[in-house]
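FYI - complex with magnesium ion, inputs then prediction.
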Amino acid sequence: MSISGEKVFHILKEISIKMDENKAFLSELDAAIGDGDHGLNMSKGFTAVVEKIKDEDKKDIGNILKKTGMTLVSNVGGASGPLYGTAFMKAGAAVAGKSEIGLSDFIEILEVALEGIKMRGKGESGDKTMIDAIAPAIEALKESIHNGDSSLESLKKAKEAAYKGVEYTKGIVARKGRASYLGERSIGHQDAGATSSYIMLETIYETLK
Ligand code: ADP
Ligand code: MG
């Protein structure tokens, strides 16, 4: 599997479309245990990303991802802006100078992105956040590759693991972000950020398929 800068940009455009389509849904999820702006944040953020990235950026995937991160930080007001922003900036640094990336690069991208989110938000698995979708996706991806599955099969398993992670957030108490103010009352609701992370992973799979 080899992904060009043009393809990475195409994926970002697809993510922007998906965030738009899921704007009301993500905001509804956030409204139940937060302040109801997650859909708007994501849709606004990725619309700005697509506008900001220029043709000359596409030669360097590191550049594309770095610019994506910086745009999310400056255009998204909520907690998710700096968190996803840091994730994409770290991802950009990991593949700086590359015009093509493969599956091993993608694993590295996800790993450094997760590291960035954990560092920035001081969160861990089980806190009912985006981490609960991303961490199991990375594990599933690595396991699938280890078992000899094709790249696409591995990406499919990764997004399925992310979905299970989203489901898992329904049953746990929020320990980070606005939802944590609700304590036990956050149980029964799926986390909005875990859901947007799942949507991104699903879109990556669907676009590469
Ligand atoms: P805000 O909470 O500021 O309104 P958003 O609604 O855009 O921002 O994003 C909320 C999402 O951000 C949550 O659903 C959760 O997944 C994620 N989140 C919040 N705080 C943290 C944190 N410390 N670590 C990781 N993810 C977090
Ligand atoms: Mg919110």
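The pocket of adenosine-5'-diphosphate (ligand 1) is lined by residues 30, 34-35, 37-38, 41, 78-80, 83, 117, 121-123, 129-131, 176-178, 191-194 (CB under 6 Å). Residues 151-170 form the longest helix (20 residues).
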